[in-house]
Write a structure and sequence with these properties.
- The chain is α/β, with parallel strands linked by helices.
- It has two domains: about 160 residues, D-Maltodextrin-Binding Protein, domain 2; about 120 residues, 3-Layer(aba) Sandwich (D-Maltodextrin-Binding Protein, domain 2), CATH 3.40.190.
- The protein has eleven helices and eleven strands.
- Strands 2-1-3-10-4-11 form a six-stranded mixed sheet, with helices on both faces. A five-stranded mixed sheet has the order 7-6-8-5-9, with helices on both faces.
- Helix 6 links the parallel strand 6 and strand 7.
- Helix 4 packs across helix 11.
- The termini are far apart.
């Protein structure tokens, strides 16, 4: 009897210890495909701090900028499928790059495992005061008068900012020159220094500078004005009805990660994204948290893949 009781007690204690063990039991790497200071970096650091508190484990944000986020996404695809590496990926590397890069080293639908949508938001067209424009109409007039002379930056080729700019070029019938960067932070830094004329930026990277009067916000890329910057009109309401370019970030892991690990990460990340303090912080930077299931993210990626594939073809966007 004593032996049986001892065995039961040992089993219970082992179960309790396992339940209290930190997840996933080692330092977590949260990959970001852009340089510090941009929207992805800002969102990831807000989320990582809370996530670390919840799981009782160190969560390190690791920036691997380049190729519009594709370098980091390839690293995520090739990482050990044990849950120790997750990535806050963007629309560009997940659903646009396959249409732009002939020899993309990863297949986003085979080599990555969707975890949850993180945030959705719209970009902001900002300009340097030296351009001498205060409205979108004035920006278009300047670009039309001087074809090929107005430059606009983005976080990289195939990213949401690049797509927003090319879609606007198509609808406004203007010739503005794209300048890709390794993130929204460096692009806005060059805009502040006057090295480029405009940027399709995230509110997180450019909003504070607009409010400080250092650069001018001309228009938002979404279907309605942003609650974080209600004074800035949308491109659609500024003479281009139907224009819409929504940005989003989502969490993924290596494609062969076991389903139970993906399910656990989904629970942990959804918990963070639903936390009132995290939602408040993300809203402050113009992000709208939209956590969901891995299945919902898969379907969303499939729709975005089809949508931006058409835009890339119609706008004749290239990776050059």
């Amino acid at each position: 009897m004593k032996k049986i009781l001892s065995t039961l007690l040992a089993t219970l204690l082992a179960g309790t210890a396992a339940a209290q063990a930190p997840f996933p039991g080692r330092t977590v790497t949260m990959l970001v495909g852009f340089a510090p200071g941009g929207g992805t970096d800002t969102a990831s650091r807000i989320i990582a701090k809370k996530l670390a508190e919840n799981i009782g484990q160190v969560v390190t944000v690791e920036n691997k900028p380049g190729a519009g986020g594709n370098i980091a996404t390839d690293i995520a695809a090739r990482s050990a499928p044990d849950g120790s590496t997750i990535m806050l990926a963007s629309v560009g590397s997940l659903t646009v790059a396959p249409h732009l890069v002939a020899k993309l080293p990863y297949d986003p639908f085979k080599d990555l495992a969707p975890i949850t949508m993180a945030v959705v938001f719209q970009n902001l067209l900002v300009v340097h005061p030296s351009l001498g424009v205060n409205t979108l109409a004035e920006f278009v007039k300047l670009a039309a008068a001087k074809p090929g002379s107005v430059t606009y930056g983005s976080s990289g080729i195939g990213g949401a900012g690049h797509l927003a700019g090319e879609l606007f070029k198509l609808m406004a019938k203007i010739d503005i020159v794209h300048v890709p960067y390794k993130g929204g932070g460096p692009a806005v830094a060059d805009l502040l220094g006057g090295q480029i004329g405009a940027v399709f930026a995230t509110p997180a990277s450019a909003g504070v500078h607009v409010k400080a009067g250092k650069i001018r916000g001309l228009a938002m890329t979404g279907p309605a004005r942003s609650p974080s910057m209600p004074e800035v009109p949308t491109i659609a309401e500024s003479g281009y009805p139907g224009y819409e370019a929504i940005n989003w970030y989502a969490y993924v892991a290596a494609g062969k990660t076991p389903k139970d690990i993906i399910a656990r990460w989904n629970r942990e990340l959804v918990k963070v994204l639903n936390a009132p303090d995290i939602r408040e912080q993300l809203h402050h930077h113009g992000f709208e948290p939209q956590p969901g299931t891995p299945e919902a993210l898969t379907k969303y990626m499939e729709r975005e893949y089809a949508t931006w594939g058409r835009v890339v073809k119609e706008a004749k966007i290239t990776a050059n």
